[in-house]
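Retro notes
What went well: the complex prediction finally ran end to end.
Inputs used:
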Amino acid sequence: MNSMIYKNKKPLLVFLIPAFAFLIVFLYYPFFQNVVNTFLKIGGLGRAPEGLNTPWYENYQRLFTDPYMHTALKNTLLLTLCTIVFQVGIALILALLVDTIRVGTQFFRTVYFFPIVISATALGLMFNLIFLYKGGMVNQLLLSLGKLPYEVKPSGKVLVEWLDWKDQAHFLFTMFMPVMWQYVGFYFVILVTGLNNISPDLFEAAALDGADGWKRTRYITLPLLRNVLCTCLVLAITGALKVFDLPWVMFGAGMPENQGWLTGTYMYDQTFNRMNVDYGSTIAVLIVVLGVVLSNAANRIFRPSEDL
Amino acid sequence: MNYGTKRIPHILTYLVLSLWALTTIYPFIWVALNSFRKKGLILSDSFSIPLGESFTWDNYITAWQRADFKNAYLNSFLISGTVTVFVVIIAGLAAYGLVRYRFRGRNLLYSLIMAGMMFPVFSTIIPVFRLEVMLGIAGTGNRWLSLLAVILPQIAGNLCFAIIILMGFIQSVPIDLEESAYLDGCSVFQIYFHIIMPAAKSSFATVAIFAFLWSYNDLFTQSFFLRYPQERAITGLLNEISSQAGVNYGLMASSVVLVVIPVLIVYICLQKHIIRGLTAGAIKG
C-alpha cells in the first residue's frame, strides 16, 4: 500500500516539472506541430507555412499514390520481419546457448553488445569498406576462395568481375545485414537476463521428471520467457521502423535506382534534400502510427498474461 | 546439474558462440589493421598484419591534418557531458516521483513517456529548429549557442528511455528504508538523495553511459544544428571526411578508428554497468 511519506503531494511537482517541461517543449509540442504541418504547405526548412494544402489531406493522398513510398514501405516491412526473425531469433539461440555454459558468459555479453555503442556513421563507413566493389573485405575473401568468376589465361587466373554488393540483386542483404547484426547483442542481453530470472528449482523439478535438453527448453524456458520475448518484439518493431543512419551512410538516397528506400531514409530525403517539409512530416506521422499499430498487434498476439 | 557428461555438445556451444563473437570483433580489427596499411595495399591484401614495408602512420597524420579533430572532440565532450548530467538529474527526479507517488493522471504520464520513445527524431526536429531560431539559439553562428541548440533536444530525446530504466530500478528499492528514514525526520528530498540515489547507483550509471554514447553518436541532430567548421562535433566530422575521402580508404579507416576510440575506452571501463543496468530496467518495461 501507499506509504505515508508520499501522502503529501506537493514535492511531486518538483520531481515531475523539470522532466515534463523538457518533454513538452522539445518532444510533445514539436510532434504535435509536426502533425499540424502535414496539412500545411511549407516550402523550406526555416520558412513559415503558406496556408493549407489543397485539398487539406493532399499529403495523405500522396502517401497512397507515391510509388517510392510503396517501395519504402515494402522494404521497411520486410526489414521489420527480418529483424523479428533473425535479430531476435539469433539472439534467442545465443542466449539459450550461453545459459548452458559457465565460463566466459561475461566475455560473450561484452563482445556481443559492443556494436551497439558504436555510431552508425562509423559502422556505415566500416561496412562500406567491407562490401567495397573493388577489393573490399568480402570480395577479397571470395576471390581467395575462388568464388568469383575468372578466366584462365596464359599469365594465370584473371578476375572477370568483382561482385557488386550494392546492385539490384544484392542490396537488400547488404543493407539489412549490418542493421540486424548491430542489435543482436541488445536482445541477447535482455534475453539472458530473462533466463537468469527463471528459478533453478523449476529445472531441477523437470530433471527429476525426466525432462532434459530440448524438452526443458521447449516446455519450461520458452513459455517463461514469453513476456521478455514480447518486450524484445516490440523494441525490434519500433526500432526497425526508425532505422535511418546506417542505410543512409551506406546507400544514400534510395540507391540502387530508387529501389533502396526505407521509410526513414525517404522521409529524410523528402524533408532535407527536396524541401518537401510537409510531406516529410506526413511520412514521420506514418512511421509513428505504424509503430503503435504493429507493436500493439504484437502485444495482442504474443503477450499471454500479466502474471507470468 | 551434470555438465560433465555432455562434453561434445559443450564444445559445439562454445564454437557457435565464438563464431558470433568473431563477427562482432573481427570487422573492427580489420578496419584498425588497415588504418595502418600503406596506400593502395588495402585493395589487394587487406587481411595480413601491416608490418615493416606496408606499415605507415600516414593515414592518421592526414586525418589529423585535414580535419580539426581536437576542436571536434572538445565540442563533442561539451555536448555529450552536459546532456548526460542533465538527463541523469531530471530523469532521476521524474522516475522517483512516478514510482513512489500515487496520483490521478499517473498512468497517463506513464503512457506519454512510452509514446515519447516512439517518436523518431526526424518527426520533431523541424518544429524544434523553428522554435530555437525564434528563441535566438539556433542558426546564430555563435559556437556556444549552437552547442546549446544540440544539447536541448538531445536531453529531451534521452529522457523517456532514462525514466523507464530508472523506474524499473527504483521500484526494486525496498520501501522500508525510506520509511525508517522518514521516521528519523528526513524530507522526501533527503530520502531521494541519501537513499534512492545510492541504492540505484548502477542504474544511474547505465543511464548516464547511454545518454553519453547516444549523444556522442547522434549524427542527425549534430548535422542539423552545427553548420560551421568550428562548431563541428566528432560524428559530423567523420561524415564530412568520408564524403571528401573519395577512394582514400586508408583515411576512412583511420578516421573510423579515431572516432571509435573514445567510445571503446568508455565501454571497456564501464561495460559492467552498461549491461547490468540496462537489462534490469528493460525487462520490466
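What we learned: The radius of gyration of chain B is 23 Å.
What to try next: split runs per interface for comparison.
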